[in-house]
């Protein structure tokens, strides 16, 4: 059974202080000053907690910078009356001194050659019950039966990439993305963040400003001019690790998250950093002989550049990872919000908690037991792959563990504000900090006696798991 030294669990106030200190440094994109500050700050925290073998592992990253974005529109038959529309450059698109062309809505039957394409982005909203059914989820903790009626708006549009990638083949000259269905009035949307260089310029505009564009398009042919400066440069980011030796096993637990973010980003992912530091502080106070495993604490770099840090960590540590009983990644302690007068108003409830877990029934059961004991309601188990159809890992900072066959638990929430500048301190669901920390401690203690090989041997295929779970559920 899992036991916790309650007095050694860091307080909510401690974790909020860590979060605020990180948040207050500024934008933490890879290669930005605040992210380099975060790397050094992590090192200082690891040292103060007595962690050993603290290492900086360098990663080559594409740093993206852009500024002075301008969008001007006018009716083709009235070029003297022009309208300036506030905008924000789409990450990793091509800067331009000015591209001028007619606007055309993205559509399968529209000729976009020589035109600036216009796309209305709507964040995907799904009933939680339907999302669980679509993804084959059969484990959840919902003691208030909220999932029967609760809907969740996630921070991305499932159709976006399918729409923008063909623009090059269609010889479009640029892209205007309208945040039509966004829950607040903003154009500061850092998507996509895959670090893929795109050959045409593109900008985001807010919902209201986008409506000005589409309303004008209803009156006749509209022209636009897009301009902004920018560059992509090679910089170094780092994965940072520190360790604590265990006394009961020679094998390892990895506890990780990422240290960069698209903005000051309280939830994404200053909150995850606070969760990892909370684990480091707790286990540093537990005598070596009482730690069930050696523990590595990992802060990945370059999450906002295609998740490169986590990918490189798995690639560079193949031998080490053979001795990892479980990798636990912790991201996003998020508060739910509602839309009101173009603003996002924080609510009392947490955003639905997603738990991506390897198809290992014993690992699922250990995780579920910890969630229930800590009353982490609104918790939904999701599969370790195919959340996005065809993906070989989850859309989290633990994405590379599944294809590598490494047992893992990846905690994440996906509030609608995750990639915009509205991700501020009031969006942290601070009431979740301590129970999440306690749940992870319970999981680690409950894994005592398990081995890396044992858990790997228990990994099931999707079909095998479905068959076993169907029988288990029927027998209940």
Folded structure, characterized:
Helices cover 28% and strands 28% of the residues. The strands form three sheets. It has a 15-stranded mixed β-sheet that branches. Strands 6-8 form a two-stranded antiparallel sheet. It has a two-stranded antiparallel ribbon with strand order 15-16. Strand 17, helix 9 and strand 18 form a beta-alpha-beta unit. The protein has two domains: 300 residues, Zn peptidases (Aminopeptidase), CATH 3.40.630.10; 146 residues, 3-Layer(bba) Sandwich (Glucose Oxidase, domain 1), CATH 3.50.30.30. The chain starts with 11 loop residues before the first helix and ends with a helix. It has 13 helices and 19 strands. The protein has 476 residues and is an alpha/beta fold. The mean pLDDT is 93. Helix 9 packs antiparallel against helix 11.
Radius of gyration: 23 Å
Say what the CATH topology of the largest domain is. Answer: Aminopeptidase
Instruction: Average the pLDDT over all residues and give the rounded result.
Output: 93
Q: Helical proportion?
A: 25-40%
Largest sheet: 15 strands, mixed
The low-confidence runs, each spanning 5 or more residues with pLDDT under 50, are: none
Beta-strand portion reads 25-35%
Question: Any idea of the CATH class of the largest domain?
Answer: Alpha Beta
Q: How many DSSP H or I helices?
A: 13
The CATH architecture of the largest domain can be named as 3-Layer(aba) Sandwich
Categorize the overall geometry. Answer: globular
The CATH homologous superfamily of the largest domain is termed Zn peptidases
Q: Count of DSSP E strands?
A: 19
